[in-house]
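Journal club side-thread
Mid-discussion, someone asked how the predicted structure for our own chain would compare to the paper's figures. Pasting it here so we can look after the session.
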Amino acid sequence: MKTLGRALAALTLTLLVTATGSACDTLDDSAGGTGDPIHRHGQDFAPGTLRVLASSELADMGPVLDEAAKATGITVRPTYAGTLDAVERIASGEADKAYDAVWLSSDDYLRLRPDTAKKITNETPVMTSPVALGVRPAAVARLGWDPAKVTWSQLHRAVADGKLTYGMTDPKRSNSGFSALVSVASGLSGAQSALTEQDVTKATPRLKEFFTGQKLTSGSSGWLATAYARRTDVDALVNYESVLLSAPEKLTVIRPSDGVVTADYPLTLLTSARPEAKEAAARLTTYLRTPEAQRRITETTLRRPVVAGVRPASALARDPRRELPFPGSRAVADGLLDAYDNTLRRPSRTVYVLDTSGSMGGERLDRLKSALAELTGDFRDREEVTLMPFGSSVKQGEVRTHTVDPASPKAALDAIRDDTQKLSASGGTAVYSSLQEAYRFLGAARDGKTPGDTFTSVVLMTDGENTDGDPAAAFDTFYRSLPAEQQRTPVFPILFGDSDRGELDHIASLTGGKLFDANQGSLDGAFEEIRGYQ
């Protein structure tokens, strides 16, 4: 069984959708600003500032923090990260050197790990937002639902009967995804207290049925919302209530009447923080919990106030919901994540279109081999992996496909590593012709699979511009001629070496994918980050 620690170590930065419903690519590290990359690692301590490791969706708190700075003299300098990535930074000790506090959607992960629980103190909830479903109004009408009375069992029944489909973020990379996983496991098991292994086992048959309805997965809420807007075959999104209410498309927000898991966004001090930082945090949280600030928060972000007497924004329903129990131990969380990855969710089917042209010789090819070898440790049971190297054209004699057999996963993983080590550099760079080959390969029926059985994607890694084969226009024409089901397969290009950002960004935009930049980070990190989208 994969451990939670290993899952957390695999996580990379993800940028979630802000409460305005848009995804940000760059954010400044001062409250409310824009311009600098989000991948920052803290700054030296300065009086009057609070260095905060924050959940990415808190970028929408900029206006509130600007007002807080005027009222308190405390400037928040956030570094934005995915919740689970932040947990790993705290566990490794990196956060102690660079930050004074953490501000995550939830501290539940921190409490599950002894190595992180001892590093935090003074948790102060600032606002709340429950996990919910945003459903297209036409689907609600078709199902004949009263949104205020829908239960997890009703949702499960609609999915099992083929009447409801949805998108959800990856639980290993997004707290909204894990909270959704916990919510449905608690709701379908009937757990009355902290989830146990027995609860998960009891709910597993119904959980498997529920996750047949998941048509979209993602490492970030921003991309998930964009992908959802392209898909007429997906009825709903699972995310925080605040995000769903802020989506560009009007959705009917359903908080299951039998309970939800709620994010409480606690501003939490690190035990390593200086006395000056602790005093600054106390002043800031005192201000953020004033009625005036709470009203500003709920109206600006559509999250719920935590101070009695402050009314939630008018868009927020007032009827109460039971708080569903969170796992009480790391072992239970570990088992739930492992079950989701390897048993419950649809398997992945991915073609890795790999540039092995002459320019990839030497260090670049070594980096590619190393990144792919490292990646094999994260492949899931039932996952189908195709390596499709190309130069002046696809190197057909080197195309290999392996499926990870749950009964003996090591055989496929070893074979992938062996194939990776055999890659060699030669030829020109036929980006667009090779992508067409990948789509043709995926379009062919194999082993009885139908297009909707898997999360299907293409990963493109190239270190240069297109020099051989078809031009970009030919690929555009080819892609638009594909059946609608195949057009739903996204391409995730990786910017590496001398590759052209404009070309790769166009491929991602055309196919509904996302560009990953290995020049700003690492090739290993780019491949790993893509895992949340497969």
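Post-session note: The chain is about 40% helix and 15% strand.
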